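Schema walk-through. Below, the input block comes first and the output block second. Nothing else is stored per chain. Lengths vary across the set, and this one has 443 residues.
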Amino acid sequence: MDKLPGLMPILLVLAACAGTPSDLPIDAGSGPNPTLPQPESKPIPTVNVAPAKGWSGEQKPTAATGFAVSSYAADLDHPRWLYVLPNGDVLVAETNAPERPEDKKGIKGYFMGKAQKKAGAGTPSANRITLLRDQDGDGKAEFRSVFLKDLNSPFGMALVGNDFYVANTDAVMRYRYRVASSFIDGAGTKVADLPAGPINHHWTKNLIASSDGKRLYVTVGSNSNVAERGMENEERRAAILEIDPATGSSRVFASGLRNPNGMDWQPQSGALWTAVNERDELGNDLVPDYITSVKDGGFYGWPYSYYGRHVDERPQPPRPDLVEKAIVPDYALGSHTASLGLVFYDSDLLPQRYRGGAFVGQHGSWNRQPLAGYRVIFVPFSGGRPTGKPEEILTGFVDDEENALGRPVGVAVDGRGALLVADDVGNRIWRVTPSQQELSSAK
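--- output ---
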């Protein structure tokens, strides 16, 4: 192992040169019927990382026609996830990966660690939730406070009555919340353990409550790309868990979801939807990330198949019985886009055609040539189902030299109907509203 650092620069150079550009536009792998080319197998996978640079001066992302973007809050520490309280206060999880020593072992682990650090994911976790408050209604947060601290790589948040739930990387915690309070000072109570441990490859755990507050749903990503560490290390992972907060008991609600992150309830149908990061190392254009409705007891293919019954030959032994059950996702979002954030729009500030549709934060690829993601998109819905092509809402996160000025992650709708976007490389929260021209024409 002591020879590994000397070997890795060679591997990094080889890997950087290994990528052949895709022949397909990224949107060919989007929509209800994505293009799925033949899988590719290479001894060294494509690595094409957009180095994290950050914004300078008055730089900001580019909003689509009809929209304007402004900075809601800046100078944060790796903001990943957002939650809006009923009084309009915005909570942001400032967080990063926990210590996970087994995940970095071996050549591949070392290789992945270097790529993640270059992409801006190598900083220590602040392990806190910060409260942001726009006190004068100008679209900027003048007030901030540490809402909760000394957490363990926190991510998902949910308020049910006066109970505030946080999904740490290893457990769901409950705290007592006081309306309009700017901080929580009481000790938390563990509700349920979550799969973690020394590998903990996909460490982010999102959380959402049912409409009646009687159940919590928590995302748990896989411990590997495609079960190369053995299925014994994937117990209750690549899944959404359902938790009874009253007793702490839990069950697997849906499985075969490689790395689910964003979750929300679709306003018209009431169905639970999630955004999922699919597997790597099958080429530039496999496998598309996706959003999908989540069925109780549903199996979505990982690791044995992708996009329904397309068999992945790598996991051994094969499981044709599970492949037969694999559900085809509802809507593809392009391969390697790292689609993380998901929120359905159910407010009035944006034009009517956005009601019921989904905004998705695409964190951006590190293993596709050319780059993909690094944007916020909108997926139109009609009658509770996705329809049409994805629309770019926020772009410009990558400069002309392919440096990442920012990387969008979590998305949320604030109390006045604007879209909020967490940017963990830019260390900012962006706020997207209709442009003045759009507002004038609406009148």
